[in-house]
Predict the 3D structure of the following.
Amino acid sequence: MRYETIIGLEVHAQLLTDSKIFCGCSTRFGEGPNSNTCPVCLGMPGVLPVLNRKVVELTIKAALAANCQIVRYSQFSRKNYFYPDLPKGYQISQYELPIARGGYIELEMDHGQSKKKIDLNRIHMEEDAGKLLHELDGVPADHSYVDFNRTGVPLIEIVSEPHINTPEEAGEYLRILRSMLQYLEVCDGNMEQGSFRCDANISLRPKGAPVLGTKVEIKNMNSFRNVMRALEYETGRQSSLLESGEKILQETRLWDVNQGITESMRSKEEAHDYRYFPDPDLVPLVIDDAWIDEIRSTLPELPREKKERFVKEYALPEYDAAILTATRQLADYFEECVRLGPQPKVVSNWIMGDILRHVPDTRDISQFPVTPSHLAEMLLMVDKGTISGKIAKIVFEEMVASGRMPQFIVAEKGLVQVSDEGALEKAIQEVLNANADQVEQYRQGKEKVFGFLVGQVMKATKGKANPQVVNELLKKMLAG
Ligand SMILES: [Zn+2]
């Protein structure tokens, strides 16, 4: 390819506060239209905004985790524009003096083979706008409705430098950022409900060119996959325009998920169009070192650190560690189970295979009927030879269905592994009698038949025979 793709991402993350940024209204999602509103968030005359302390705290938390510099003196500004979902006619945001600058997110591409730092430009706080509805109960309406419940809900905007070069890097950046915010309990990361949203700036330039090309902003992408698809599409669109000597227009384009294309929405506005100015209703925000230190001391172990520790402490492959630490809840589940005794790699295999098949969103794993103690007890029974690995699969499914502890299931269903030589000899002899042809073939040197005979013994014992003992006995009996 002759062109280099330059991508910058702007992520809006909704903060996990109970109340809005400048008033006491609830931030709960899915309430009746306009029920979470008051004169402040409706922009009535004569009211004054009061900053929610928790918003600042969560923002500093995110900024520290993203290695940003916390700005000790920051300011709120008014971003002026008209839209029906914006009752005040301006959005309170931060402009010249954001709360955090710099920082970076480190990507691990190719399963950790290559690392790349994506620098951040800034993180700032702002209020969300309301929501326009163009349909009611799924039926297109002949006029639009406005719901102000979301008006004044606190957001942080995380602005990256244009250091991202491929759709895959963009996807990885979003995954890492979201996982970090979820670990911090700063944002729930739910893209469908709009609490984690992403806009992208993308431009192309001839490889090695010193100046950036004209950038296009893409909006309306509601999943990581759609962000990547939209960037892929836009790369193709822009490069074919440039190939044919045409110019790229600076504009905002909307991703159309059904058609898989971007469409022009409007020419891109410049910052000066918004007539930003410091909000006279809010005093500048001064943050002292003591507060920053206090917040820093509450930072949990972050995904990257946890992953590295898992590799070292539990001797796990990078791949396992990355999956197990994708959410804090899953990592806790794993560690709780290992603490009870089973081998870490065995626990990891069960989680990555059988458990993830049953638990699509691992943040909900605490509701899964198989708790770490269920899993640990079962794995220890396999370790001791009480049940076979094969029987463990049956016990597991039974635990999923009933939530009962493995020792009860094993006792009740008579699933204990048979290692008693007398009992097994009898079963083996029956198999040998019933398969005289195969026995003859084996004795003539066709060793493959051995596996078949083991299988027959396992079948006759309904999988309960200890395979190791069966192997030894069978060899002895065939020789004799
Ligand atoms: Zn309110």
